[in-house]
Design goal:
single chain; alpha/beta; 42% helix
């Protein structure tokens, strides 16, 4: 039974993400969040999943939307999968970090456990920026005592012939890559559901 959930309340998982969680370019039901619902059923874990992901969303957008979601969903666990679009838009790293921290704190104050899902940027952004960007997820997770998946696209974006696992835009994974995304998230998420 998740913290913050009463015996009568089914634990709920709120996913606040961007296109990687919103099934951009995929058939409905083939993205990692939909596959999570099947995984929960297969593992006989009673929990509901609320996917509040929006393609193109940023940490400022997620931060603005989160309070209403926390009130309406009353989640036991909040999965925050945002930040990639901040980097694509060149938003200041400090702002991304502050937004992730504020979202994490708000979810925790509402009684939810938090799982931050990290992202990395392509090498053409420069080594310093790339290192600082990928590091901010771990920094926030450590500072706020939240769980962390260091890189959502591990085993997809960092493998030989990775291009074959992506849609033509080379940003969004194909449906066949989404089980790997779920496998990256699942071990940390499962711990939070105990």
């Amino acid at each position: 039974m998740a913290v913050g959930a009463s015996a009568a309340q089914t634990p709920s998982i709120l996913v606040v993400g961007d296109s990687l969680s919103a099934e951009y370019g995929l058939a409905r039901g083939t993205g990692w969040v939909a596959l999570l619902e099947k995984r929960l059923a297969d593992e006989k874990i009673t929990a509901t999943v609320h996917n509040a992901s929006i393609s193109g969303d940023t940490t400022p957008g997620g931060r603005a939307r989160l309070p209403a979601l926390l009130t309406s969903v009353k989640p036991s666990v909040v999965v925050i999968e945002l930040g990639g679009n901040d980097a694509l838009r060149g938003l200041p790293l400090q702002g991304t970090e502050d937004n992730l921290r504020t979202m994490t704190e708000a979810a925790q104050k509402a009684g939810a456990k938090v799982l931050l899902v990290g992202m990395q940027v392509p090498p053409n952004y420069g080594r310093d920026y790339a290192d600082r960007f990928s590091g901010l997820f771990a920094k926030v997770a450590k500072g706020e005592k939240a769980a962390l998946v260091p890189f959502l696209l591990k085993g997809v974006a960092d493998v030989p012939d990775a291009v074959n696992l992506f849609q033509p835009d080379r940003i969004h994974p194909k449906a066949e890559a989404h089980p790997t995304l779920l496998n990256n998230v699942w071990p940390e998420l499962k711990k939070l559901l105990k």
